[in-house]
Predict the structure.
Amino acid sequence: MTLHHMTARSKTMSTPITRRTFLKSSAALAALAAGPQLLTTCSRPDPMHRIGLTTVTFRFRFAATRPDAYEGTESLLRLTDIPAYFADRFGVHNLELWSQHFESQDDSYLQDLKKKIEETQSRLINIQVDQRYNLAAGDEDERQASVALVKEWVDVAHTLGAPSIRANTGNGTLETSVQSLREVNDYAASHGILLLTENHGGISTDLDVLLQILGAIPSDNFHAVADFGNFPDGTDRYEALARLIPHTHLISAKTLLFDGEGHHTSFDFDRCVQTAERAGFQGIYSGEQWDPSTDPLDAEYIADWMIDHLRANL
């Protein structure tokens, strides 16, 4: 999202931080990083056990998700690079992988990826399934094809040893979405995989609808992902998050827009973490950044920022 696009929505014009503005904010980042390190000298558990990253944040470094118009010069990554990259650069061993970044679903490829995860003493915490599918589709052929596609990702998760996948509710009727999610959940449970759904577009944009879907499938195998950034305009983000937490297995600790000084401007990220903690969440926060811009993005700075703010609040 460019500065031009932001002026119609906010008096504070914000764009994702780029490498050109990184030096302006490096001193502030270093100061923030020092605080959580001091806190870890206490007896509390290491908060890094509850912090992960998703490859979504690094989407401009994957050939499949780097837009043609992107002007950044960062080197490209492959999914098999991620376990070592996250561990060595960020000290993160909780990996969330975006389905868009899988180069293959062949067994040999998946076994190689699994080996890379194991070699770094990391764990795959979830697969975010975002392909062409609609579990709430009114057309029965499309609905069945969507269910079949999501089941394929259950198989991928099973091969990799992932505990869960996240599937979207889709866009259509609540009843159709529930029917599809129930079918997928039965299949996932038979393979020892949790099925997660999220406030992530379609009918799940309405929190009341999402909560109805979660309540309609009373299963220990079916839970939510709570996304900080996906509550619609006009929603009390913190109240909505607190309502979703009792159903939540994993949090997408999303950031949106950063200004040129490296400050997150879209909402109070720290308050989101504090709200989730007060509501009793004890799981993993997966750091994610998203906005529709194709401007060069300093994903490493943003990942550092999210990690440091999570550490400071856990």
